[in-house]
Amino acid sequence: MKALPLYFFITSVFAATTSFAESSFEQELQQGCAKVKQYAQAGKKFYDQKQYAKAVKQFEDQAAWAHFCQLNTEESGIQVTDRDVEIANNNVGLSYAKLGKPQWARVWFLRNKDTKTSQYNLKQLPKPKLSTDLQGIYVRANGFGQWDYITVKKQQNRYLVDFEGYYFGLRGLIYGPNLGSFETNMPITAKQAKYRYEDCQIKLQFLNDPQNGQKIEVEQNNGQSTCGFGHNVYAGGTFYKVEG
Questions:
Q1: For the whole model, what pTM was predicted?
Q2: Which residues form the signal peptide (predicted)?
C-alpha cells in the first residue's frame, strides 16, 4: 500500500489541534460569559454589606467579562450592550470610592467619561490631591477592564520609571496578552524622562491636571522598531496616578 505523504499527516494533526483549540476557547468563553450576572449579583451583595474590597473583585470580573463577551458575541451567544459595560465599570468605581481610593474610582469612571452616569459619579469625587512628589503608580485603560502601568520610585537623587504594558487581542482574556516593558530614570528635579531602543523613542512628561490629578503624558515614536515590546503593545497615552 502506498504511504501517505508526511505533509498530509502534519496537516491532519494541525487541523485537529486547531479544532480542539476552537472548541476549548468557545467552552471557556461561554462559561465565563454565563458568570457575568453572577459577578454583578455577588458584587452588589458585598457592596450592600459594606464589604467593598470583596465587591471590587466581583465588579472587576463583571467589567472584564462584560467587555470581552460583548466583543465575542457570535461565539458566546450572549448579548452585552454598551450600557452593560458602562454599569460594570461604574460599579467598580463606586466600590473604590467607598474604599477611600478616589483616584482608582476616577480612572474607572473615566473609562466611560462621556456618559451621564460617569459624569455624575466623577463630580461626586473629592478634588484630586496634587503633589511635587512624583512617586506612585500611574495607569492607562486597556481592553477588557485591564490597565497598563507606570511605576515611579525614588532612589537617592533619581526617579526610577518602570513601564508594563499589554496588548489584548480579541481572545486575549482567555489566551493572555502580549507584553512589553521598559525602564528608565530621570533626576529628582526633572519632570521629563526619555527611553530609547534602536530607533524607537519614548518621551514621558509629568504634569498636574487640576481635574483628574497627577498624570504622565507619554509619546512614542516607533520608527521601524517595536521598542522591544510584544506585538501591538504601545506605550503612548495618558497615565493617571492612582496610588502614592
A1: 0.88
A2: 1-21
